[in-house]
Amino acid sequence: MSSKSLSKSQDSLVVKVFVYVICIVLAILSILPFWFMVVNATRTSEMILAHPISLIPSSHLGDNLKVFDDKPTFQPVTGFINSAIISVGATVLSLYFSSLTAYALTAYEWKLRDSFFKFIMAVMMIPAQCTLIGFFKMVYALHMTNNLLTLILPAIAAPATVFFMRQYLQSSLSMEIVQSARIDGAGEFRTFNSIVIPIMKPALATQAIFIYVGTWNELFRPLVILIDASKKTMPIMVSLLNGDIYRVEYGAIYLGLAITILPLIIVYLILSRYIVSGVALGAVK
Amino acid sequence: MDKRKTVNYAKYGYIFSIPFVIAYLIFSLYPVLYTVVIGFTDLHGLTMKITDMRLMSNPFQNYIDVLSAKGNGSFRLAFFNTVIMWVCNFIPQLFVSLLLTAWFTDDRTKIKGQGLFKILVYLPNIITAASVAILFQAFLSYPIGPLNAIRSGFLNFFDKIFHFGFDGKTYNFLNNKNFTRGTVSFIQFWMWYGNTMVLLIAGVIGIDPEIFEAAQIDGANRRQTFFRITLPCIRTILLYVLVTSMIGGLNMFDIPQLLNRGGPDGSTATTAMYIYTQAFRNSEYMYNRASAASIIMFVIIMILTVILFYILRDKDEVELRKIRKRERKALKR
Q: Could you tell me if the ipTM is greater than 0.90?
């Protein structure tokens, strides 16, 4: 290769080194806080007070775990179960009914269809925060506070998911398949369940991850609706860590955080390829 | 008459939309309307029944109360904080994401390990914001904590050289208004720039490569290509990033709430925290005032969204018109 074409197609070494250094620094910045957390979760409060920063784990994980036996405000197992129930319920409902609505918007010609789609687009951006007081008072009047269903059922109407599913169906559903199912005598509902849902699998997988994570991480609504200690979700449990009860239990705080964060990191690393490409998919469509 | 022809498929469009519509009416539309109504009434206190709720003598009294108060714990300060903390996160976020996008989509730089890098910088986005906030609170803890250890280490080191007489005292970072605001902005930045970058890279990859080839033939340099071609082509995605980030930013709650409970002196209190505090942490349970604040935020978000939707829709229509023109021309030929 001649030097001229080389200089044209490649950056100088200085630029390359600079770019790599910045990227490595940013990558480290993404992991380092979590590494500090894991390390400090294995150290006693005395060790943390003497040397707040360490990169080498110690062996006092059990001691920190014992703090939660003595002061059982932070209940990770309860939080985990409640969060899992809400997240699974909300994800399943949201995926199924959003797909159904998206199918109605794609496969059928009906009078109000375009206005309905415009309506969904319009309300897509309304955040739940703006409706919270009315939602709370309604739930309160119905004695539905402290009920996990209160946070699961609203997932049936998820405008953003409907929008995504519709975009997906428009590009991947051929009406010929639906027609042939009709000729074979399948009802419309059965066609949807046994033919359309399998077609949507890739979109369902992507959306499932994002709905699950979003529901799992939500703090605002659960904080208002779930007051009983036995109903608290993981983010509310985490918020209890910064109360007075654990004020001097530095090791326990880090351990509590690690308990809530590490499962997410592990699941993320397993699914990361799908997640990162899923983000991009949502944008381009 | 042929039976098959009379099957009216249109009705299934309605039938399949019913679950969504019912759930939407119950869980979203009704609460919105209810919130609007409460905003004009005297509904407050934990025990007050809805049937006892009365319209205010001046229906807009709650709005006046919300908007006129100043200082610590006021809506005005909360709105100011929210905007400041969003802007201080979004501008660096966009800058860094664009820079990384420019590097990663440039054939001449050819960065290796892009996949791994994307996975790592996206990681904070997936983690519970509540946990992240408390983790950073632990890092900033006073009198002894990781950041204080770094600070003391630095000051001790420079004190040995310059002898400015470092007294060894540690610093309470969370007592400094701007430092706490900056920390909230930093956490938001740290959690979201990976997401923005992935979106922008997807946008750039989606651009027709012929456009870049044409630019190269015309002798455009790298900077010209980026500012004149890449940026205009990803305008839709930039707007999408802008609007989602703005709505998220205007509803910021978890991080400032758990990092320092809106402190010091209400300097990191946000509008979402104001709504929460008025309704659930105020001893008088001011549901009416919280509703009025919600509706104010709702209107602000709606106006901004409509503006952005208008811009987005306009662009699509222009493109559609172009395509139709082309089609018509092709037909004439």
A: no
Q: State how far the Cα of B236 lies from the Cα of B242, in Å rounded to an integer.
A: 10
**Is B114 a member of any domain?**
yes
Instruction: List residues bridging with B41 in a β-sheet.
Output: B55
Number of folded domains in chain B? 1
φ/ψ (deg, to 5) at B59? -55, -25
B325, B107 contact by CB (below 8 A): no
Is residue B11 domain-resident? no
Which segment of A16-25, A77-86, A239-248, B37-46 scores lowest on mean pLDDT?
A: A239-248
- Residue B163 sits at φ, ψ, to 5 deg, of 55, 50
Window from A12-16, B45-49, B185-189 with minimum mean pLDDT: B45-49
Name every residue whose Cβ is closer than 8 Å to that of residue A186 and which is 6 or more positions away in sequence. A194, A195
Partners of residue B10 in chain A, C-beta under 8 Å: 108-111
Q: At what angle do helices A250-284 and A76-107 cross, to 10 degrees?
A: 10
Minimal Cβ distance to B134: which of A241, A275, A279: A241
**Residue written as tokens 């104001």?**
B274
Q: In this predicted structure, what is the pLDDT of residue A92?
A: 95
pLDDT of residue B46 exceeding 70, the answer is yes
CA B29 to chain CA centroid, Å, is 23
Query: Which of B127, B276, B298 has its CB closest to that of A130?
Result: B298
Asked whether residue B44 is domain-assigned, the answer is no
- B140 in a domain, yes or no? yes
Which of B5, B135, B200, B261 is the best substitution to test chain A (most A C-beta atoms within 10 A)?
A: B135
Contacts of A64 (CB under 8 A, 6+ apart): A41, A42, A44, A249, A251, A252, A254, A255
pLDDT of residue A59: 82
Check residue B19 and give its pLDDT: 93
- Residues of B whose CB is below 8 A from A105: 13, 17
CA–CA dist A17, A264 (Å, integer): 33
Are A229 and B121 spatial neighbours (Cβ–Cβ below 8 Å)? no
Partner residue opposite B202 with nearest CB, options A132, A261, A284:
A284
Domain, as residue range, for B105:
72-146+172-285
Q: Are the CB atoms for B136 and A253 separated by under 8 Å?
A: no
Confidence class of residue A1 from pLDDT cuts 50, 70 and 90? very low
Q: Which residue of A has its CA nearest to B191?
A: A30
Residue range A76-240 in CATH 1.10.3720.10: yes
Percentage of residues in chain B with pLDDT exceeding 70?
95
Distance between CA atoms of residues B269 and B182, nearest Å: 13
CA–CA gap between residue A60 and residue A46 (Å, rounded)? 11
Average pLDDT over residues B165-170: 78
Q: What is the mean pLDDT of chain B?
A: 85
CATH of the domain at B276: 1.10.3720.10
What is the nearest CA distance from A23 to chain B, expressed in angstroms? 7
Tens digit of each residue's pLDDT (9 = 90 or more) over A215-260: 999 999 999 899 888 899 999 988 888 877 777 778 888 888 888 8
